[in-house]
Amino acid sequence: MTISVDHLTWMYETMYKIRYYEDKMAEAYAEGKNPVFNIGAGPVPGEMHLATGQEPAAVGICVHLTKEDTVTSPHRPHHHAIAKGVHLNRMTAEIFGKVTGLGKGKGGHMHLFDPDVKFSCGGIVGAGIPHALGAALAAKKKGKDWVAVAFIGEGAANQGAFHESLNMAALWNLPLIVVIENNQYGISVPKSASTSVPSNDIRAAAYGIKGYYVKDNDPIEMYNVSKEAVERARKGEGPSIIEIETYRYLGHFQGDPEVYRDKNEVTLLREKDPIVRMRQLLIKEYGIEEQQLSELENRAKQEVEAAYQFARESDYPAPEDALKDLFV
């Protein structure tokens, strides 16, 4: 399948932006939490789940989406939000708990909502699938060619919401795509110890829908299967499941001791880094100059740095406003 250079460079720049954003968030989150880890300390309190290494899952499908398409995300949402076009300044301010955030600082890292680009983050395992199902139903009822994408982890494929939503989506022939990011572990439990099938794409057969599997965290293959799934959904050909074999380089949460996996595992995974592979592909196969790629990287860095500066310089909500806007 031919891929335009514009799509390829957008994917590369967005993956780079996601990685740089998560690296910066890891630093910000660690402030004030050492030498003894204190989840409530520092400028970014609470639990934090980063997506370093999982960038291909987000960019490979979001490159095919428009502002009118819906995306829902679980507790590890930054890469999806960035790829969908969520306002980076307001997203970062929200994570820092600032009044300039998407939810005026009241939602935080696991509850990011941006109606301007139809993005929402439920935070709970599998919770976003019924929301995406509703968006897909709305699209069909309104006669629109909009698509709804629900990102979940492989553990969420064992939740009731997964099966119930896909059954309804298949029955009503809805434009729903469920993207399963198989990062090998549900918290600390390996997939082999929790799931009876080798890959969740084969579960699509139970609903009479299309299933795809993307090996080895490959952004190009993710692009190709996502293109087909999105085109099918827009044409009224029904829902799909995409499972991508991806990898999180960090723990389930920041501060995770990761005693459940061999430290050499992460080293081996980083040797197959998708951003490095994508950069090499653009240079060798598409003749893009390193200078151009460096310019894309610098632009991504500048955007991220500006977002963090905006968040740090923004004000916290006033105590007397704590309960405002919670009930409408």
Automatic annotation (TrEMBL):
<dbReference type="InterPro" id="IPR050642">
    <property type="entry name" value="PDH_E1_Alpha_Subunit"/>
</dbReference>
<protein>
    <submittedName>
        <fullName>Pyruvate dehydrogenase E1 component alpha subunit</fullName>
    </submittedName>
</protein>
<dbReference type="InterPro" id="IPR001017">
    <property type="entry name" value="DH_E1"/>
</dbReference>
<dbReference type="GO" id="GO:0004739">
    <property type="term" value="F:pyruvate dehydrogenase (acetyl-transferring) activity"/>
</dbReference>
<feature type="domain" description="Dehydrogenase E1 component">
    <location>
        <begin position="46"/>
        <end position="319"/>
    </location>
</feature>
<dbReference type="Pfam" id="PF00676">
    <property type="entry name" value="E1_dh"/>
</dbReference>
<dbReference type="GO" id="GO:0006086">
    <property type="term" value="P:pyruvate decarboxylation to acetyl-CoA"/>
</dbReference>
<dbReference type="InterPro" id="IPR029061">
    <property type="entry name" value="THDP-binding"/>
</dbReference>
<keyword id="KW-0175">Coiled coil</keyword>
<feature type="coiled-coil region">
    <location>
        <begin position="279"/>
        <end position="306"/>
    </location>
</feature>
<keyword id="KW-0670">Pyruvate</keyword>
<keyword id="KW-0786">Thiamine pyrophosphate</keyword>
<keyword id="KW-0560">Oxidoreductase</keyword>
